[in-house]
Amino acid sequence: MALGKQAKILNRQQIDALLHHVGKRRNGLRNQVIVLLSVRAGLRAKEIASLKWNMIVGAGGEVGGYIHLTDDASKGQSGRIIPINKQLKASLVELHGIDRGEWVIRTERSDRTSAQAIVNLFQRWYRDLGLIGCSSHSGRRTFITNAARKISTVGGSLRDVQHLAGHSSLQTTQRYIEGDSEARKRVVELV
């Protein structure tokens, strides 16, 4: 991906505005889960569309602490286990309480949705909010950038972020990470 062609990342206010906007629409809870799967779990549109409840729900029927994303639900062989963020878990628990189908994201006319439908939803939501340069990949880039910025505070490394992203190459993960000019200024002062 060439510099400048990447999807823009979202700040906290933009994420909150997006969640508020999609929550007011028809299928608000489902829409919020779609957004949270992108910004809090880093899932691609294909992965959101391919997510089944059995990848999230434990043997006792409750939403667990991890997404067990299978290779067939992901890009290439990038299946992985992703811990579920608290905000995402609360929304998944609520959605699971009212929807016990096979697929997590469904439409009114079908048991499941497509990756293209997810891409189109994001495109419409970002356009509605006037967020230029954002796409269905913005949430994923936001997740990867935020994880990279915070991973060292919990004793992790970029390899852990690479695993969460499902990338086979650390170089690919690095291309997703947005730089921070203020952080560069602060670190120079520490040297």
Could you explain how this protein is built, in words?
With 191 residues, the protein is mainly alpha-helical. It has a domain at 12-140: Intergrase catalytic core (hpI Integrase, Chain A, Orthogonal Bundle). Helix content is 51%, strand content 4%. It is built from 9 helices and 2 strands, in the order H-H-H-E-E-H-H-H-H-H-H. The chain has helices at residues 12-24, 28-39, 45-50, 86-98, 115-129, 138-150, 158-165, 170-176, 181-190; strands at 66-69, 80-83. A two-stranded antiparallel ribbon has the order 1-2. The longest helix is centred in the middle third of the chain and has 15 residues, at 115-129. 33% of the residues are buried. The mean pLDDT is 91.
Instruction: Provide the residue-averaged pLDDT.
Output: 91
How far apart, in Å, are the first and last alpha carbons? 32 Å
Shape: globular
- Widest sheet, order of strands: 1-2
Helix content: 40-55%
In sequence order, what are the helices and strands, one letter per element? HHHEEHHHHHH
Question: Can you tell me the residue ranges where pLDDT is under 50 for at least 5 consecutive residues?
Answer: none
Strand content: under 5%
CATH topology grouping of the domain at 12-140: hpI Integrase, Chain A
What is the correct CATH architecture of the domain at 12-140? Orthogonal Bundle
DSSP helix count?
9
Q: CATH first level of the domain at 12-140: which class?
A: Mainly Alpha
Radius of gyration: 17 Å
Structural class: mainly alpha
